[in-house]
Design a protein that fits this description.
Helices cover 31% and strands 26% of the residues. By secondary structure, it is α+β, with helices and mostly antiparallel strands. It folds into 2 domains: 205 residues, Alpha-beta prism (UDP-n-acetylglucosamine1-carboxyvinyl-transferase, Chain), CATH 3.65.10; 206 residues, Enolpyruvate transferase domain (UDP-n-acetylglucosamine1-carboxyvinyl-transferase, Chain, Alpha-beta prism). The strands form 7 sheets. A 4-stranded mixed beta sheet has the order 24-25-1-26, covered by helices on one side. Strand 18 and strand 19 form a beta hairpin.
Length: 420
Amino acid sequence: MEKFVITGGKKLKGKVRISGAKNAILAMMPATILASGVYRFQNVPNLRDVWTMSRLLIDMGIYSELNDGELFVNSHEIKSFEAPYEHVKKMRASFYVLGPLVSRFGKAKVSLPGGCAWGPRPVDLHLKGLEKLGADIDIEGGYVIAKTNKLIGTRIHLDIPSVGATGNLLMAAVLAKGTTVISNAAIEPEITALAKFLVKMGARIDGIGTNMLEIEGVDDLHPANELIIPDRIEAGTMLIAGAITEGNVTIENCNPYHITAVISKMEEAGCEFDICENKITVRMEGPPKPVDITTAVYPGFPTDMQSQWVAFMLKSNGVSKITETIYPDRFKHVPELQRLGAQIEMSENTAIVYGGKKLSGATVMGSDLRGSAALVLGALIAEGTTEILRIYHLDRGYESLDKKLRELGAEIWREQTEEY
Ligand code: EPZ
């Protein structure tokens, strides 16, 4: 196991390059199931989740190799139509193979991500949509068993604009017979990127970028190459790292249009920005003003930036309320931040942050990807040294986070630990 050892108090200064979007490549890799052949993806981040998806595809007979930001996939030899629990339990995105397998081969056996179909990690929208497209869905022994002779286009309305359900159903509909309309579809940039990639493969999709997707099924698709869009959540996290340390940080290879809500709230908190094309510079002097946020689907304030905002508001000179509306319980970072001296009260799905309290280094433990990012941000402003355990959570979604922060002047080191 590894841990981060961080000594707080350093102002971050300099430039950092944002990596490719985890949630875009994790959706496109399963899309290679839809057409046999060789695919080349560029600007692919070197992340644990990409390795996990690679291993899942390899176990299905697909060649997948990541080399220095380029991912080669060859889906000529698909031999297995299963996504076993060992992969899906590690990464919910493994569930994305369901739609492509059913659509192309008429069969799939995919482990439920965790819990049952209806909770606590529900996939009911995925399954209801596939049933509407004509798949027979059974659940046996923690697995979804899907079968069909041929998916038939239909109208699907999503009760929740689920990112995963939109991606899975989009990949199912592109080879269905006839027209499918997905209404209340997710419009996150990663879904838009997936739709554009599918069109490159020969799919016929109208309404890309809107919450009404119309898919005209085709008989077959062909491989394509793709350049992965920048990771908007890494971008937002790095901007807050610059601001929380009262530094001056420029992030490069980003898309400012993908993080307008985060930039707007940071401006409200007193941050100054220079924004041009694919670069953003943030400057901050003194503590941020207390600013309330409520998470929402895109283009609202992203749930994946909620924990980072809690950390940022620890530095503020007042009281702020952070409300989570996407997930029922996404506050595992709060008790760990309290170990650093943070004063935070929970009221249902709202964290009330009493900013300005002195934070002191301590040993804390990550329990999920974005919550762990909040612990890093807290450690950057805590007095003394903080140790963050279980940083494999961070390695799932941030490429070389310690190296990038060190290059900006942070005192952060990765060390081995015997902690299990
Ligand atoms: C994607 O997860 C992202 N993961 C998550 O990012 C992100 O937090 C989430 O979208 C919301 O933006 C990937 O893209 C790999 P959802 P996903 O389906 O698709 C409920 C990160 O940090 N729901 O939009 O699983 C669900 O319980 C990760 O990079 C149902 O009720 O999210 C949740 O409350 C974390 N039934 C809400 O919808 C369903 O069938 C949003 O989930 C599906 C979802």
